[in-house]
Amino acid sequence: MHDQRLPSSPGFWRSPLRGPWLTSVLGVVLLAGITLLFVTGLLSYAAYNPDLSSVNDKTPGKGLLGFYLFAWPTSPYWLYRLTQGVHVTLGITLIPVVLAKLWSVVPKLFALPPARSLSHALERISLLLLVGGVLFEFTTGALNIQLDYLFPGSFYPLHFYGAWVFFAAFALHVALRLPAALRNLRHLRSGREREGEELVSPQPDPPTVSRRGALWLVGGASLLLFGTTVGQSLGGAWRRTALLAPHGGADPGSGPGGFQINKTASYAGIDPRETGDEAWRLVVTGRTGAVRLSRADLMRMPLYSVALPIACVEGWSTDDQWWRGVRLRDLAALVGHESDPPDVFVESLQRHGAFRSAALRDNQVADARSLLALYVNGEPLTLDHGHPARVIVPGAPGVMNTKWVARMTFGDL
Fold it and tell me: What phi and psi values does residue 44 have, to the nearest 5 degrees?
């Protein structure tokens, strides 16, 4: 006879809502949602080209976990805006579903004996890793969006390794439980509980809401979170609805420079005296040596205009802005790379914060839309937007579009 006061006793859990049907419905939703979340997360990591240069790789020692990395493309130009917008918005939207799923299976965490068979032991282990992994991944992701890295450790390796541990447990759990979940869903209309009876309370309290009502509650909460997050990626008037995305909310000002800024000149430690036309010089190095260019020298080169957004890892993105400047491939040609633009290592005047330098692949340099921008929306760059010159590359994460550029080195990195 179990002590009803202990969570290991079936009688401790009294909710009439718990049961295999509710758990199965939530599980199928998470099967699709978390799989998409994992894939878009891997794409986000690949977009940094971490295997190109150590300055891009914020997750050293990934070993076999980087097997899928590929050269991030520049087309379509909105690719990162889409994949990272989906990743962050979906992650926020799934929070109520995850919490409901954890609530629905919590009796299993306390069930005794710990293992009745090998398959049951594997299921328990996968469940423990799942619970720990999902709480870790969703917590670090939400903190990164809301507080801009204000938690112990570096976001990139924590989230990357945590994702692999979590998804491995998730895949194992799906393999063990998917057949039973599908059988339970087939009995949706009959209301018969087939497998997972341990979730059903032997002495349930009187119901206050139906299971379908509980699903509507979870779905409504997810819809609310979706509606207060997705505007950061849609742009336009929808930005005003992005209440849960502080970095991607309404435009922070008006005029040509009135769009989102990921880090200000003050935060980056930029000395305005270094960015004046008399003091600032761009050093470009390549096959034939080095050249020093003033802003006036750059403006005498052929200038091109392109409409591109800035998209950030926190999920927010700007609308398309009109940038005007010198093509990166033309700068490569100045130092001996006329027909074969190579990779480039870009260094900034920035003193504080991550990504003070970044490496771009040859395909990014060769793209005619990749610019060292001098103007935005018809006006010179403001200091916060990277004056006197910044990189803008189609499809690249925002931090790869280096601001306050001081040096560009073309060639082997």
Answer: -60, -45
